[in-house]
Each structure stands twice: as C-alpha cells, then as structure tokens.
Amino acid sequence: HQYSGEIISEINHPFTHFLSHWSLQLHTGKANFLWSIILLIASASILFFLFSGFAMYLKRRIKTKTIPCALDKDDCEIIILIGSEGGHTYAFGKALFLQLSQQGKKVFLSNLNEYTRYQKATQLLICTSTYGDGSAPSNAQHFLENYKTIKQPKLLKFAVLGFGSLDYPHFCRFAIQVDAVLHQQENFIPLLPLEKINEQSKIDLQKWLDNWSKAIGTTLVLEAENKKTNRDQFTVVKRSVLNTDDTFLLTLKPPKKIKSESGDIIHILTPGAQRNRAYSI
Fold first, then answer.
1. I need a surface site. Which of 153, 172, 198, 232 has the fewest CB within 10 A?
2. How far, CA to CA in Å, does 207 sit from each of 10, 49, 129, 163?
3. What is the pTM of this model?
4. In terms of Cα–Cα distance, which of 241, 258, 259, 257 is closest to 249?
5. 17 by DSSP, 3-state: which?
6. Residue 135 per-residue DSSP state
7. CA distances from 230 to 6, 112, 233, 258, 266 (A)
C-alpha cells in the first residue's frame, strides 16, 4: 500500500530474470572489482590471439599461395602439386614452374588440397614435405581423401619428391603415403621411383632433377640461393634433465635480438661437427 506500506500482493521474479541479473553482473564485472580485472585481461587476450592467429594465417597463405597462371589447368600437360608447411618446398616448386614455363611448356602449379581432374595432363609431379610426427602439411591434408573420389581422364606419368630430415623417425612419411596410393591406380604410371631429400641436400636434389628433366625431355638446373647466411654464437643458459625418450630442453641466448616467425629454421653447428642440424622455430 502506498500509504501504510502493507504488502497487498507479491509476484516472484521468474528464473529468467535471475539468470539475466547474474549474467549482467558477471559479464560487466559490476559484482566485484577483481572479477572486472580478470574480465579485462581475458578480453584483451582473446583479441590478441585473434589478431596474431589471423596474421600468422595470412603469412602462411602468402608463402604457399598458388602462382597466378594464365593457362587453364585443363590446357596444361605438366601438373605440379605442392605440399608445404613453411614455404621451402613451395619455393622449389615455383622455381620448376618458372623454368618450365620459360621453355614454353604448359605447366600448372597448385596445392595438393586442390587436386582435381586434368583433361590434357600427361605428367604429374608431387613435391611434398612431412609435418610434425609424419603428418601431411596444412595445404595437403585433404589430398588422400580427395584422391579416392577423382578419376583422371588420361594416363598420367607421375613422380613423387619428398622433403624431410633423417633426424625425425617418420622421415618423409607423407611422401611415402602419397607415392603408395598413386601406385594403386591403373591410370597412374610411375616415371621415377620415390625420391626422399634429406635436409634440402643440394647434391641429391640436383641428381633427382637431372633424372626427372631427362625423363620429361628437357633440361633443368637447381637455382642457387642468394640468401645470406648469418652465423652467431649462442650461450647455453639452461639445460633440462634427460627425458625418458632421450631428449632434453636447451635455453639458448643469442648475442643480439633475433626476429623470427613461424616456419623459420635455425641451423645449429656444434664445435667439431662436420655439418649442422636444422630445427624449426
């Protein structure tokens, strides 16, 4: 009652009002100052991971994007498909594409994920690395699945070139899988046996290139890289105990600040060693 204050009748708030109230308190931080700080940090972290993840995705797409080609895939006789995670294998495929195009060959370059029918193709070259513990690179993850549903209209002579490192137990595992499935189809004829290149060996790569170019009736050369190699002396700050799998962690300190990004590789040459070992950053 507006004068006496007597409660004449009452209606309890519905459960949705209760949820709405606490949702407002928790999402705005009105209930507690500490909770407001936590929400602020969480919100900033979400934005950071969104933008940084998108930036990494764009950089990877730029490294591995398909070269614009004036020719249609169905008009090309040579198809080069690439499986690359950091961009090094794609750079090799791009070099082959440019050399063959300059020689007047009709060549089409693409990712393994974009495998499809090729009406006039007679040659298929697959260059692929292996990611992680024997998995396919990101731009080749759907190839083995898509391959089963696509039948080529003409016979294809194929060759598979794998890139990897003998330091890993599953050396060129994905390239081995790709070569195996191609051998299972009747309309695929192996032009060369599977070749596995260890740590971008220039000698082995040029030897394979000589054999492949001779098989397709042309001459190709391995272009020299003009990339400058920087050699710095690192300081070992900390070393962890030996794990059960005979591995350990090293904390290294460079003599100066070094900028690196996903896909970069550091080559470590220890004193007295004959060759360096490559590690992804």
1. 232
2. 90, 44, 18, 14
3. 0.64
4. 241
5. helix
6. B
7. 86, 33, 10, 11, 10
